[in-house]
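I'll show a sample.
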Amino acid sequence: MRRIYKHIVILLVLMFASCANRGAGPQGGPRDTIPPMVLKETPLNGTLLFAEKEIVIELDEYVQLNDIQKNVLISPPQQNAPEVKAIGKKVYVVFQEDLQDSTTYTIDFGAAICDYNEKTPLTGYVYSFSTGNHIDSLAISGCVYNAATLSPVSDVLVGIHRNLEDSALSTLPFSRITRANEEGIFTIYNVQPGTYRIYALNDISRDFLYQPGEGVAYLDSLITPTFDVRLHFDTIWVDTVGLNPQTGDTLFTRLVDSVSIHPVTHFYPDSLLLWYFEEDRKRQYFQRVYREEQHQFSVVFSAPQDSMPMIRALRPSEVDSLGNDYAWVDFLDFSLIQVSKNLDTITYWLTDSLAIGMDSIYLQMQYKVTDSLYNLVDKTDTVLAVYRHPRMSEKTKATMERKKRERKLELRTNASSSFDIYDTISVTSTFPLDLVHDTLFHLAQKVDTLLQPIPFTIYKKDSIAMTLYVLAKLLPEMSYQLKIDSAACRDIYGACNDSIKKTIKLKSKNDYSSLRVKMTHFDARARIQLLNEKESVVRELAATSEGAKFEYLVPNTYFLRLYIDVNGDGKWTTGDWLLKRQPEPIFYYPKKLKLRANWDFEEQFDHLAHPQIKSKPKALREKISNKRR
């Protein structure tokens, strides 16, 4: 018995200990998801003949403010934003400038007012008042969408102007403003009767004015807000349960108990669509010059150039009256020039030891820059390309010099054992080539166990020959060998390559898919784009009446998009506010395509079957939505 009592005592102790240790300290409760509630406003929301300097909003709990600059929006906008602060359970709005006469003001707090503990926001709270004897009550609604991706644009400013001149966007503050939400939806409240122009603006400068370079959207047409009143019927039904006197079955009966009628006001326009775009206008200016290696330097501009800058080598004496021209040479006489595709980076490869030995190279450069109105004007600069020798010991310096003398030219090639049918064999050098011996290149086809030479030509991609193409007729499923003998190539500094041997195996046609895309409503200006799951363009073809055919596609998931190439330049063109040009329209094929190997697919693309904003496939829309989260 004593042993049984002992076991019972131990069991009770363990039970009490278990109950006592269910949490370390207070566990709190469920998260507070109820936002603060407005109890009182001073003056009252909707006050007429408003003449105060301060508004006090009292809430039912302690509150804090979140990102006032982003969330709190006052319309019409003020140059000196009001001071908004939270103290205890009250929010104060203190105006910093005089209010306009006979004007309706709206303060949209967005998600600014939050409870103190969980930061649960009070959303949808708008405070309105008028300095006149009535409050304007019209409203304008719509959506802002990115013209390039057909995705909603959030947080951009949407405003209207009563001044209908185009110049108003960049010279006058908006008449009324709001901000687009996460779905791109906006509503401008308390609008006066009249005719307006409407804009969306990524107001980076926070001055409520358009500045060149800011994203923008606009309607070509004017808008006139209106409203109508419709009668709304609310019906209250009464359900009864009884027996069917003939069959005895349960009988359910629904009868009208009462009908209430009340007016509902609808405001128009309520479905405006603004196509937001970022202009293809980048400020053009000289960015920097860098010389990380003694034998080369690069001049970099901020944006693509229309033409090469005019560059002249300067003698040291032209820059400094005490400068010595003794060891000076004109580097332009001893250099190869490499330019990027858009002329925004220009690299000079120095080919003479005297030019390489000049640690400081001065050049005078005349080029184009954009002014405040994005006009191109000429500018002349003096630029210094300086090389700073790294600090190193004599031993390290000797080792570096030895490695430089023994350096071999490095050649790289895309030749591989899984070579795409449509690809071209390329050979790339790390330095400009001075000499290429075509006879030391060998290309052979493997037939059984034998290698049979096949004809080919070598094509230099550019004037400095840093990329070579080996052009030959290669057959699917066949194997080849590319061999480059030692010293087949020599760079401008005298280094030669080691021998290279690569096996090339072409894929089979059965490894690919093909896709023909026909337009239901053919438009000769259309260009069709094939997109991957990241929405990057994989291929692009002009639309044809027979259908644009994409061949040799790697089996995968793809999407289709087309745009109408209005200006015929072969690429999608964004809008331009200064030129009053809307972006070229884009349409999505509403389904994703899963292509399989050795299959030929054909799709009918009816770009007019759905509204533009609803045509984007769900899979792509979900990716954008997940990114926002």
